[in-house]
């Protein structure tokens, strides 16, 4: 699928990618360097339809659909249901884990799955591993000890040794692995102000060391969070994230920008593209947790909406013309995973991945609202028109 830019021209903004100045309350990002494109461009109208040569789900006419179906597409395998094994909520190497594991991300390497989550069990970067997607055990040393494989950068301001990192995203970029995270760089208006940090490691098990400068946007009180590292079918790496919005001026949205070849920062000359902005009633006050995947010629963008603290939290998706959009919501704009449709409470924080020839989502949901956000693995099916249905919620 070819990548495309947004229809409207994106113009310069006041604040951009920068190091964070953190010297107490109301700390904010510094101004842009003259050679940098803005981290968050000026608001512009987003496309509501996809280009005519892109599979557009419900907006695809029959003639275009017939043409598309005549093409050779790789086979699709019906995903088998996955049930997460174990009952222990204690983080113990060697034992199947079924405790807190929010905002999961997933990669596969050398016959093993690695899943990452928002900090839990006093770990900055909790990592579970699995051979079968069902039984997950904590990453361990060769001697069976606990592992916290990430080192946080000096700009992180934390009262708990950096153990308040949120929603990591991990991907193989170049000859190593990039792990991105959101962390407090200070406070603004009495609330935690977030920036995104990048780290590099030799394997999906780390160790991950800080690289580059923090990615900050000081004008937004809550900053930027929920990074996702995505490598497209051409091998080009991208970083997606959630912009928390500016009160009374601009709603929350999802953005993307190309990374450099070694995953240590943005590519020279790259520009930020806006993919989706808060829009639908079910999304409540925010959209977040972007995850992009390409499957059988279609580029999908998954995201969460509403409050993560409630059963109203849900997962929607869009079809995109390519990594830089435009992206258009599907499923009539309604969520793909919701409490009502899955029987899982507040299904969100999802990350998409391909398991052999099947498309899946790893996500969290409450066992009881307000108690434990647990890991689930859903199986999806790509219909002939490119839209998706949930085969099994996991």
Mean pLDDT: 89
CATH superfamily: Glycosyl hydrolase domain, family 43
Placed side by side, the strands forming the largest sheet appear as 3-4-5-6
DSSP helix count? 2
Task: Assess the beta-strand content as a share of residues.
Answer: 35-45%
Q: State the CATH topology.
A: Tachylectin-2, Chain A
From the alpha carbons, calculate the radius of gyration and give it in angstroms.
Answer: 20 Å
Order of helices and strands: EEHEEEEEEEEEEEEEEEEHEEEE
- What general form does the structure show? globular
Alpha-beta classification: mainly beta
CATH class call: Mainly Beta
Largest sheet: 4 strands, antiparallel
What is the count of β-strands? 22
Q: What's the domain count?
A: 1
Task: Report, as a whole number of angstroms, the end-to-end distance.
Answer: 29 Å
- Which quaternary structure do these chains form? single chain
In the CATH hierarchy, the architecture is 5 Propeller
Uncertain stretches: 1-35
Describe this structure in words.
- Belongs to the glycosyl hydrolase 43 family.
- Residues 1-21 form the signal peptide.
- Keywords: Glycosidase, Hydrolase, Signal.
- This protein has one domain (47-392): 5 Propeller (Tachylectin-2, Chain A), CATH 2.115.10.20.
- It is built from two helices and 22 strands.
- Helices cover 3% and strands 37% of the residues.
- It is globular and about 55 Å long.
- Residues 1-35 have low confidence and may be disordered.
- The chain has 394 residues and is mainly beta.
- Strands 3-4-5-6 form a four-stranded antiparallel β-sheet, with no helix packed on it.
């Amino acid at each position: 699928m070819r990548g495309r830019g947004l229809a409207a021209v994106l113009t310069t903004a006041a604040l951009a990618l920068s190091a964070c100045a953190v010297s107490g309350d109301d700390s904010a990002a510094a101004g842009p360097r003259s050679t940098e494109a803005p981290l968050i461009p000026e608001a512009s109208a987003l496309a509501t339809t996809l280009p005519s040569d892109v599979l557009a789900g419900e907006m695809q006419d029959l003639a275009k659909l017939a043409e598309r179906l005549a093409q050779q597409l790789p086979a699709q395998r019906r995903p088998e249901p996955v049930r997460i094994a174990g009952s222990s909520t204690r983080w113990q190497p060697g034992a199947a884990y079924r405790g807190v594991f929010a905002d999961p991300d997933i990669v596969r390497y050398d016959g093993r799955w690695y899943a990452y989550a928002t900090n839990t069990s006093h770990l900055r970067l909790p990592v579970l591993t699995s051979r079968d997607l069902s039984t997950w055990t904590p990453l361990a040393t060769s001697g069976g000890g606990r592992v916290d494989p990430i080192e946080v950068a000096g700009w992180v301001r934390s009262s708990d040794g950096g153990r308040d990192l949120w929603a990591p995203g991990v991907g193989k970029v170049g000859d190593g692995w990039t792990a991105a995270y959101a962390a407090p760089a200070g406070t603004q208006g009495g609330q935690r102000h977030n920036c995104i940090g990048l780290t590099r490691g030799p394997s999906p098990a780390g160790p991950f060391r800080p690289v580059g400068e923090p990615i900050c946007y000081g004008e937004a009180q809550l900053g930027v969070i929920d990074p996702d590292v995505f490598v497209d079918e051409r091998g080009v790496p991208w970083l997606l994230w959630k912009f928390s919005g500016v009160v009374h001026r601009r709603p929350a949205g999802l953005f993307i920008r190309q990374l450099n070849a070694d995953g240590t920062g943005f590519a020279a000359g790259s520009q930020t593209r806006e993919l989706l902005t808060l829009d639908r009633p079910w999304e409540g006050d925010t959209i977040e947790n972007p995850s992009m995947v390409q499957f059988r010629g279609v580029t999908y963008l998954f995201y969460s909406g509403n409050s993560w603290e409630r059963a109203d939290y849900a997962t929607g998706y869009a079809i995109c013309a390519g990594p830089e959009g435009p992206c258009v919501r599907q499923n009539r704009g309604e969520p793909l995973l919701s409490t009502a449709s899955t029987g899982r409470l507040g299904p969100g924080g999802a990350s998409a991945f391909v398991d052999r020839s099947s498309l899946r989502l790893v996500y969290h949901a409450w066992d009881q609202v307000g108690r434990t956000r647990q890991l689930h693995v859903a199986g999806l099916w790509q219909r002939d028109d490119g839209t998706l249905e949930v085969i099994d919620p996991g």
